[in-house]
Amino acid sequence: MVPVGDAAAWSQEAFAAEIVDGVLIGRGAADMKSAIAAFAAAAAKAIAAGEVKGSLSFLITGDEEGVATHGTKMVVEALKAEGEVIDHCIVGEPTSAEAFGDMVKIGRRGSINVEIVVEGVQGHVAYPHRAANPIPVLIALLARLTETQLDQGYLSFQPSNLEVTTVDVGNPTTNLIPATAKARLNIRFNPNHKGQGLADWIAEEARTANEGFQGDVIVKPSISGEAFLTEPGPFTDLIAAAVRDVAGRPPELSTTGGTSDARFIRDLCPVVELGLVGKTMHAVDERTPVDEIVKLQAVYERLIARYFAEFAAA
């Protein structure tokens, strides 16, 4: 769950779900409790109308905003082990950028976090031959990594980017060569890469940086998720048509933004993210106009009805 932050800064109690001047205010109003409610209402109407010629399932977890270890990832692994077949999935992430229905997400970049620790030998700056300074080694390694162009992009994906997020030595003394220097970096990557491949590349660069150094260069990678793309086709066409009917315009099929639990579901089936405007997600006074929640329900209603009419028949 996303923390409230400064509770006193909210105009309403963060979990009261108050409607003020036609706007629902509360944590999750945009991301993504309202989407869950909209789909539940749409599913109930479709079932009552006899439109569901198969099954509809909900997967709602509580750790998507955290390490995502015991939620969707674990459920996906269990479903695969049981041989459960899922044909398609909609994730209700807030995908609209500026106005309702202007964008849906058909893919996301992958993410890998890497901690680099250079362990040297502490010593006096006047006697550098008795020490092994980790800082030049770390600087040279980071320069090699950041100067490398990872790719030119991939279909609708932007080029992968590597960003150094922190460099730490923690040395308050002017005449001391420190024993350790650390850095962290993140790579957001498109389907040109796999997380393990990038981890292996950084490890190889670290081994090169370690040559001739009387210390150790340690690389600790953590792959948050792989890049994925649901290719445009009948499923995305169906979604775009449902959005167009309600919003009055076709949505952009985008791969921008961060990551979501769709990165795990894509191992089971094609997945598309379709939800509300995301400008206020995670913010104080997170909010969504009630009429846009109603519109999202209408989109989901059309999507469910047409899905079972077209895909179940096929």
Task: Label this structure with key terms.
Aminopeptidase; 7 helices; elongated; single chain; three-stranded antiparallel β-sheet; alpha+beta; 314 residues; four-stranded antiparallel β-sheet; Alpha-Beta Plaits
What is the correct CATH architecture of the largest domain? 3-Layer(aba) Sandwich
Q: Any idea of the CATH class of the largest domain?
A: Alpha Beta
The assembly state of the depicted protein chains is single chain
CA radius of gyration: 24 Å
Q: What is the residue-mean pLDDT, rounded to a whole number?
A: 94
- CATH level-3 fold name of the largest domain: Aminopeptidase
What number of domains? 2
Question: Can you summarize the main beta sheet?
Answer: 4 strands, antiparallel
SSE order and pairing:
Blueprint (H helix, E strand, L loop, with lengths): L17 E3 L2 E3 L7 H16 L23 H11 L6 E3 L11 E3 L1 E2 L1 E10 L3 E2 L9 H14 L13 E8 L7 E2 L2 E10 L5 H16 L5 E10 L2 E2 L4 H14 L4 E3 L7 H4 L5 E3 L13 E3 H21 L4
Parallel strand pairs: 3-14, 4-13
Antiparallel strand pairs: 1-2, 2-15, 5-12, 6-10, 6-11, 7-9, 8-10
Word description of this protein:
There is one protein chain. This protein has 314 residues and is α+β, with helices and mostly antiparallel strands. The chain has 2 domains: 18-61 and 70-108 and 230-310, Zn peptidases (Aminopeptidase, 3-Layer(aba) Sandwich); 110-225, 2-Layer Sandwich (Alpha-Beta Plaits). It is 31% helix and 21% strand. The protein contains 7 helices and 15 strands. The protein has helices spanning 33-48, 72-82, 134-147, 195-210, 234-247, 262-265, 290-310; strands spanning 18-20, 23-25, 89-91, 103-105, 107-108, 110-119, 123-124, 161-168, 176-177, 180-189, 216-225, 228-229, 252-254, 271-273, 287-289. The protein has a 4-stranded antiparallel beta sheet, with helices on one face. Strands 1-2-15 form a 3-stranded antiparallel beta sheet. Strands 3-14 form a two-stranded parallel ribbon. A hairpin with a 2-residue loop joins β1 and β2. The mean pLDDT is 94.
